[in-house]
Write a structure and sequence with these properties.
The chain is globular. Helices cover about 40% and strands about 25% of the residues. The chain has a five-stranded mixed beta sheet. With about 140 residues, the chain is α+β, with helices and mostly antiparallel strands. It starts with 9 loop residues before the first strand and ends in a 9-residue tail after the last helix.
């Protein structure tokens, strides 16, 4: 039986989020944004939020450890908050401090549910700049 998915929201700063993205890349997790993209687009002094939504186990790749698939509410350099996904090791997630009260967690989940996706944001930014709307890692 897989571990129980935590029903909580954790706050990370940009440096912590970059570390989580680097760990996901090191393990070859499928849901992650490239670290260089995050460095380019995240607001440096911002807070970001992780909300586990799925236990991810790759039965066809048994060498890949179990992970939590988290929705992430990212604050980008424009000040907007956008929705991405990030696979995180359970013990890594558990080490993140629990800092939000119940009302704050509910508010963050509500913002996650209304946020535009990374793809939508990138496409809008490209259209506004008159550029190619494709993502650089596609």
């Amino acid at each position: 039986m897989p571990p129980t998915l935590p029903r909580t929201v954790r706050v990370v700063d940009t440096a912590q989020l970059l570390g989580l993205a680097q760990e996901a890349a090191m393990h070859g997790f499928s849901q992650r944004l490239p670290v260089d993209w995050l460095q380019e687009h995240l607001a440096t002094e911002a807070k970001h939020y992780l909300f586990p939504t799925l236990v991810q186990r790759l039965t066809h790749r048994p060498e890949v450890p179990l992970q939590w698939r988290c929705q992430q509410l990212l604050t980008v350099s424009t000040g907007e908050q956008i929705l991405g996904l990030l696979d995180v090791l359970p013990h890594t997630f558990d080490r993140l401090p629990e800092t939000l009260d119940t009302a704050s967690k509910k508010h963050i989940v509500s913002r996650i549910e209304r946020a535009v996706t990374v793809r939508e944001w990138v496409e809008r930014m490209a259209a506004d700049a008159g550029g190619d709307p494709t993502l650089s890692w596609d």
